[in-house]
Fold this sequence. Notes:
B: mainly alpha, Arc Repressor Mutant, subunit A, C: mainly alpha, 2 domains, 10 helices
Amino acid sequence: MNEILKCTGLTKRYSNVLALDKIDLTIAPGKIVGILGPNGSGKTTLIKLINGLLTPTEGSVLIAGNAPGTETKKLVSYLPDNSFLPSWMTAEQIIELFCDFYEDFRPELANEMLNRLGVPKEMKLKNLSKGNKEKVCLILVMSRNALLYVLDEPIAAVDPATRDYVISTIINNYNPNASVLISTHIIADIEPVLDEAVFINRGQIVLHQTVDEIREETGMSVDARFREVFKW
Amino acid sequence: MDWTLDKSRPMCPQICEIICLAIANGEFSAGDKLLSVRELALKTGVNPNTIQKSFEELERRGVVHSVRCSGWFVNESIDAAKAEVDSLRNKKTEEYLAEMEQLGCTGEEIIEYLMKAKEVKNERDS
Amino acid sequence: MVKKLLKYEFIYYLRTFGAFLPIVLVIGAVTKLFLFLEEQYGGKVIEIASGSSVFMLVVACFALLLLPTVVGIVRFYKNMYSSEGYLTFTLPVTNAQHIFVKLLGVLGCYLFCALTVIASASIAMAGNTLGNVIADIVGVIKGMAVVLGSINVTFICIEMLILLILSMCSNMLLYYSCITIGQTAKKNRILAAVGVYFAYYIITQVISTVFSIVFIVGGTLGAFEDIALWIAENYIASIHLIMCGGIVLSCAIAALFWLINQTIMKKKLNLE
Lengths: 232, 126, 272
């Protein structure tokens, strides 16, 4: 298996809006890839298709050779852009839930990270601060030993300290057999951690290069290049 | 070591430069173990693949070598690291010269500017 | 996986209304106490107290029998289509397993609630009243057995039980389908679900009205005389036929809603 994710001619149409237009995208193992685009460019649609939360209008998406389904859900660890954990449960209970359903979940890692950040584990999620709630989400998602991590806007709404924490968690969890997909529109903070950048606009991929290639060819940071591509 | 990186340049050569400089300055001696890829990635926030590539590049240039299962080490001779730093210094000087010439300075004038700037800096520092 | 899913269903239900069960039992006990006091001492105050306590018990029992449906609907909506749905739909579980477990959870709740209602009522009536009630029920069944034959009564009871469970299932699947269809709307999804329910309600009303008109008109014209005669002659077989017909109809309705749920979840899922 030399590709973790492979999208071919991937198209998604919502009634009359074309959200994704014939996307071809391949992600190799061991890569940290940024899906970069302005709001409404199709990032979340792509991510939902990868997670089987939407079905393609045309084309296909394959994770380790399989179309999204029960098998791929075992391999993909997904952080949605909203708080997706049951708010009536405690972090402790959710750790148990993840243990029950995901064979690759590492509870000792999750516990260690929660302890280190001082997040109370016996409190219901709805009583936690917004920052702590986001940390619980990230920690649970990153505590899986998955093949593909899909993080939808993990740093959009967090404070700078948490932002650094997100990045160091991603690095700490780096595994040459697994890939990480990060969607964001705030590029400056995460660009050093990226291998590749995928610029996406109006449902189409406008650029897919390694970040060092972008810097070498244009003499610009990825952030500056992004601003140039999406200038209006 | 100062890990300030310029995001508008590729990361790989910058990391090579910083490591070479650290070796040339004696922060690492011949035969010393360097930080692991993961440690360095965490410290700099740079992608682990990029760090790995930088180490491999330094190995090609004869600065470091890897020991299976235990990491990266400075070579017994640090001449290669010194040569890298030397060529970097030369390159920077040439760039500076070219810029000053662009601004219409002759060789003597450039030296005068340099002396003056050095004096100002010394005063400020003390 | 079904077992694990079921565990979280019951954790949710226990957390949401687990406390009600002992409360209803306590109300039963209090009612018994007041009834006992009324019998022993009488008096206006105790009479009012025991009256209102009986009233409360009846209300609590009815509430308890309604609760599983209401909580089941809320649970389904929240777990599948609110932000929690992002987790639910990315667990390595099939949609069929999700729906099945949701149904099983509600049925389990019904069982617990029904047992609690029976226990609470038994406590309130403990003593002579309870004995009389049980004797009455046994009497009715015995009477039926004399008329219909004991084997037939046994089968009719089993058929009734199956019909009860199936119609609970098809009802829950109807509510689930309404929610699932509702979530395909762009906004006001709960309102859309209610709309779908009323549309279904109107359609079934129209169909049953048409049937009863046909029946009444046909009856007055004497079109069903043969059937009526047959029913009168074979009334035992007719009861079985009606029960089995109900079972088949419930199955068909349940299967229809099951398919609607499955198809939409697979093809038209659109989480907010």
